[in-house]
Design goal:
The complex is a heterodimer of chains A (155) and B (165). Chain A is an alpha/beta fold and 155 residues long. Chain A has four helices and six strands; from the N terminus they run H-H-E-E-E-E-H-E-H-E. In chain A, strands 4-3-2-5-6 form a five-stranded mixed sheet, covered by helices on one side. Chain B is built from four helices and six strands. The longest helix of chain B is centred in the middle third of the chain and has 21 residues. The chains are: A alpha/beta (155), B alpha/beta (165).
């Protein structure tokens, strides 16, 4: 009698419990196309750019008295401003970007409230190089970058 | 083990009862796919650069807004996916304003005004444009495009970049 009861219990435990997965499948199948449409596998972001000096006719090039300018020359980066003179960082060396970043950080620390920088490029300067300098200046605490041409000014 | 009669002792026909498909493995795939898609979900504007335009990498993290898109690749300038002018024409032109692009921008502007009027919105105060420039384009081309955009009423200009991970 006892043996029979134990056998019955064992049999009851062996009954496979099957989950009802179809509703969940339906939900997943509806969500996936929706997410596929709004998924960005390549993350694109934007940088707000101020206009080149050639386009700004009436407004002054910069409103800050420091008038901080970065010149992107083919051989060097040069930083210029009122009261700080001109500093050049040759681009041939490996740490030119770091040097430029450090110099900008020092300038920002010495002149709190400075947010704008003018980036002056040569006509043949590559877009990638300009974006790189914009990144460096933004990391140094200068989020507003105005693009301009006329590298001759720096020499 | 076979009996004398040649029949298997414990043999039973296979297909008995209701046949159910094993969905667990499919559920696993769908769950992984769902997690991956949730990770790459973007709530704002999804911007895809046209083929041939390799955007520069940047640390910028501002998400793009819906705006007029001007794409610049090695050979041509595209406005909303349509070819407008070739790069050699732009480089060789002595003028700062790119005439074919200016004409297309005027048409786009009129279209935007018309749409705003139909929707009952007021006059558009700030017009935004996004430049999707190839990383190898020269500054003189970019400058002319920006100048042309500004001269035709597009004052808010954003540069599209690939976000560094």
């Amino acid at each position: 009698m006892l043996r029979r009861a134990a056998k019955r219990k064992r049999q009851r435990q062996h009954v496979a419990a099957e989950l009802e997965l179809m509703p969940m499948m339906n939900v997943f199948i509806s969500i996936i196309p929706l997410l596929l449409m709004s998924a960005a596998f390549v993350q694109v972001s934007v940088i707000q750019a101020l206009l080149p000096s050639g386009a700004v006719v009436a407004a002054p090039a910069t409103e800050t008295p420091l008038d901080l300018t970065i010149f992107i020359r083919h051989d060097a980066y040069a930083v210029q401003g009122n009261g700080i003179g001109t500093m050049a960082y040759p681009r041939s060396g490996p740490g030119a970007a770091e040097q430029l970043g450090n110099a900008l950080r020092e300038i920002v620390a010495a002149h709190p409230g400075t947010r704008e920088v003018r980036i002056v490029s040569e006509p043949t300067t590559k877009y990638e190089e300009i974006i790189e300098v914009m990144d460096i200046s933004r990391a140094a605490g200068l989020p507003e970058a105005a693009l301009a041409d006329g590298v001759a000014e720096a020499s | 083990m076979r009996t004398r009669g040649g029949r298997r002792r414990g043999w039973k026909p296979k297909s008995q009862g209701s046949g159910s498909v094993n969905l667990i493995s499919m559920m696993d795939i769908l769950t992984v796919l769902l997690l991956f898609l949730l990770k790459s979900y973007v709530s704002g504007e999804v911007m895809v650069p046209p083929p041939g335009v390799r955007l520069p990498n940047s640390t910028a993290d501002q998400s793009p807004q819906s705006s007029l898109v001007v794409a610049i690749d090695d050979n041509q300038i595209l406005l909303g996916g349509d070819r407008v002018v070739s790069i050699p024409e732009v480089v060789n032109s002595p003028n700062m304003e790119i005439a074919p692009l200016a004409a297309q921008l005027q048409a786009a502007r009129q279209q935007q005004d018309e749409l705003a009027k139909r929707r009952g919105e007021g006059e558009i105060k700030t017009r935004a444009a996004t430049i999707q420039g190839d990383k190898a384009i020269e500054f003189r081309v970019l400058q002319k495009v920006m100048y042309t955009l500004n001269q035709n009423g597009y004052e808010s200009i954003a540069l599209a970049v690939l976000q560094k991970s």
